Model the fold of this input.
Amino acid sequence: MGTSDKILGKSIDPAVHQMLERAEKLNMETAWDRYEKMLPQCGFGELGVCCRNCNMGPCRISPFDDQGPKKGICGATADIIVARNLIRMIAGGAAAHSDHGRDLAHTLLLTAEGKSGGYEIKDEAKLAALAAEYGIDTDGRTKEEIALDLARAVYAEFGKQEGPIRFTRRAPEKRVAQWQKMGIDPRGIDREIVEIMHRTHIGVDNDPVNLILQGLKASIADGWGGSTIATEISDVLFGTPSPVRSEANLGVLKKDHVNIVAHGHEPVLSEMILAAAADPALVAKAEAAGAKGINVVGMCCTGNEIIMRHGIPIAGNFLQQELAVMTGAVEAMIVDVQCIMPALGDLCSCFHTRFISTSPKAKFPGAVHMEFHEEKALETAKEIVGAAVENYGNRVAEKVFIPGEKTECMVGFSTEAIVKALGGTLDPLLDAVKSGAVRGIAGVVGCNNPKIKHDHGHVALVRELIENNVLVVTTGCNAIACAKAGLMLPEAAEEAGDGLAGVCRTLGVPPVLHMGSCVDISRILTTCAAVANALGVDISDLPVAGAAPEWMSEKAVSIGAYVVSSGIFTVLGTVPQVLGSPLVTEVLTRTANDVVGAAFAVETDPVKGADLMIAHIDKKRAALGI
Amino acid sequence: MSEPKEIFVRTDRCVGCLSCTIACAVEHSASKTLFGAVGETPAPKSRVYVEWVESDKKVPIVCRHCEDAPCMYACISGAISRNKDGVVITDTDKCIGCWTCVMVCPYGVIGRHLETHKAYRCDRCPDRDVPACVGACPTGALIYKTVPAYSASVRRHASREFVKAEGG
Amino acid sequence: MSEHRSQYLIVGGSAAGMAAAHAVREQDPAGSVTVLSAESDPPYFRPLIPFLISGKKDAAQMALSGAGPYKGEDIVVETDAFVSGVDPASRAVTLEDGRRFGYEKILFATGSRPYVPPEIEGTETDGVFALRTLADARKMAARVEKTEHAVLLGGGLLNLKAAFALLERGLKVTLVVFSPEVLSQLMEPEDARLIRQALDRAGLSIKTGAAATAVRAGKDGVRAVALDDGSELACQMVCIGKGVRPNVEFLEGSGIVIDGGIVADRHTACNLSGAFAAGDVAVTYEPVSGEPMMTALWTNAVEMGRCAGLNMAGRKTAYTGTFGILNATQVAEEPFVSMGVVHAGDGKYEVHRHETDTAFRKLVFNPAGDRLVGAVFVGDISNAGLYRYVIREKMPVDRFKRQLIDHSLHYGHLLR
Done:
């Protein structure tokens, strides 16, 4: 019997189809099943008009003129409630990214002090460049001395009370001036998040626009603050990515190896897992247990980190995490923070898979907690990998089912790598943009969401862009989707319009460039800043656009906010919880243009979304006279 | 018998908040409060359902207490009858859990109580003036009126629309 | 001999007869209604009689009049009133005891009796039953005292219910089934897997592909059953559940057209003026194919009886036809529903099966795939009524075919 229409309608990925059929057969539920059970979702929530910020509530505003309450008990209208809820989402997302950055800064600090258990400073050039940005002297100093000063400087960005945050000054002067004019030039990474929490408390900020401005401010402290720190310090510690080949999708799991999935976000953990898995003693142990070796694969953003730097294959994106466990071939699912489904606990117990949590901040039901601290990093990582190797003998052969799908991809396009591929300067790219061979550049990012056919939002939108000669840079789960769809091979230039195809062939790069994990959207910001500065314009003048076709997380809300605040028009593929306030909707989709030179659009059809981006790019080209 | 009131449903007003289902379950619990009901065993069951139709329609469905109820005639133990208020009731003592009523109900509103092996359905909240679901609905999607009163309100609305359409 | 005369005379006091009587009374508050029942017990819910054997209910709890919708007034019920002949010319019937009852309108709802296969020897032996009436149930309940092992012939629903009633009394019970699986009339063998597992778990012994050839008698009635494979099962009670035959013999010479059962038109009328037929005794038709058929189900009998009653009282009502298979029940904690065309093995239907460890469903579509014609649900029977509706109304299913197959159909889908 062929695959049911129902399953075919859930994803474009054949590996997912096979695993969903398997899930049905094994009577196991997935996020898709839980989504269906959740329908209908509460309309008050969907509209963003539910408020639980105080115990006079919970309150909900009726969307109907003639029936139901129009104000919360404190008097808050739908506009106020929606605005408060929105910026609390930004706070959550900004906090996640920023904590990630904080952990990296802390790791650098420990490493510089000689107290970390196995980390090194791999990219001294980047260390020096960052030190220069902070005005730290590098002459005649050891890398540890420089790193110590840099780590302290970066660490300080989190707790400071007055700005500026150093990396925000990478943005063009005009952009910074606009932020200052609107009062949204951030003062400190943590401070802006705390102020969101304060302002959204009952009886504090009740002006929707004022609230949104604070949201934008905190998001800028994320994008140009916490996220940039995360990216740059990761490059210092683990190396700046350069082009490398690898493979993507569930087929990267190997039947005859010990399979370890590194899932979550911070390379602080995944790099050590990789190092531990290379340990000869552990490899020997695996071979003694009957395996051919230890196969580490990534999932979600930590997977993006290790594929970018080491070409480690990636098993899938957000919605595939349960499916990886269902292959029955995973000895350990090792996780740290963010985007990890608590459903994994129950699921792993149906197989031999050990669900191992490592962060004191992130514990899960059904997980074995093997707490990971940077001071004993490699040692702990070896214990964790050892536990996985020991588990190989518990694999049940009849329960193993690994779909064959895996696609080759070329990844590793950090800003530095792109510049190098261009021959050392951005000029060839700028020339291509001016000539129209490259119509513009699009940053397509973001999660998966069962509300959108899995990967269809991502791949259909990206295909429409490259067919129209828009170069695509991508991160996160979108990047993984494009890799699986074969768009990250140089040969994929065939699918691009003639102009873009020509450029790709000349440079030997794919039309879709993997720039890394979600915090690495900061790479895109840095690149846009560099291009804008080279052209002497603001980022909002550039023929660029952003999109998050299948977004779901609060991190995505923060990202959207900082990308728009940086002057880049952004299309959202799932409807945000703001439509209960026509005012907030208007601000986000129109008024923002006057505030930050860019705005949001919501379009659930990916091809139409791409067309909106192309139209925007053309408008910017015309304004630039190119 | 005076005209009984029915529960009418305006699907254009339903936002899917499920407040009706919570209120119904609480009304049919032992403690009759939400905080008490969440701790009870067996868990109280709602007799009203909110279903979802692609792409965004939310539809509350509840027993219609049909005048010519198929369930009443299908019941092989005579447990189902229509009382003087027009409410179709399942007598749980007589119910043997054969589910023939489930098989003939064209609305799918007869539930199967897993713990007691009996059928259950909406009883129009005999201890209340207004059924719990109607009272709980925050958007006016559930309306408790007699058929003539409800039809009259629809006619009033329709006649206003007519007049508007004619340019009055 | 004096003759009783009523406006409405109903021959048969079970489902069809009593449903008709009440329907008449709803329409006509004044007309005289008389029901003639051959049984000694006043009307009762026949499907409940296994509970008498298990002891879970007593006869009073099974009484029909006054329960459910059967609350009509001034309906005269005569028990022990067996009609032996019909005289249409004088519009009267004659009872076995000689009484005569006259009528203006008459309904034949004499039902059916159990079929005892004549090829099985010794079925008159003491302790051999065919469970049909309350009286049968009483006798079986009494026999339980002398029984360690009961053998039931036939794997149909009635026998399953009787089997469980006996299991509850602590007896060892064996089912001897000719078909490859139980409930062969209601579903195909693969469909019954979950039910069969539940029956096995409950301690029922089942022998499939076997038939009884004879009942062996001892000094106290039945002592064993001989099977066609040569073996014998020692037992003290035998219950035969091999189907039913309509009670039409009394109509010989009346001029009523009989084809197996009494032939009735779309308005339940038979060929004699003022005469109607409903229930197990009537030949009705299957709504999907239009083919004539006979049914032996309580729900169908009630529907037909009501329809007949309305027609008798002057309100012309067409009968929408009856599914041959329309069953819902719970067997050993496993609820199931079976309706419409469920034997789809010959390949001309479009069949969708879905099986998990706890639930099974099978949907049968017509060859064109645009109409639902049958369904079986085991374990999860939610919204089964909607499926009956879709089948009976022959609704085009293109708008919600996927929801039908996924079992996510609900009433909201039918609203647009």
Summary: The mean pLDDT of chain C is 91. Residues 49 and 292 of chain C are 30 Å apart (CA to CA).
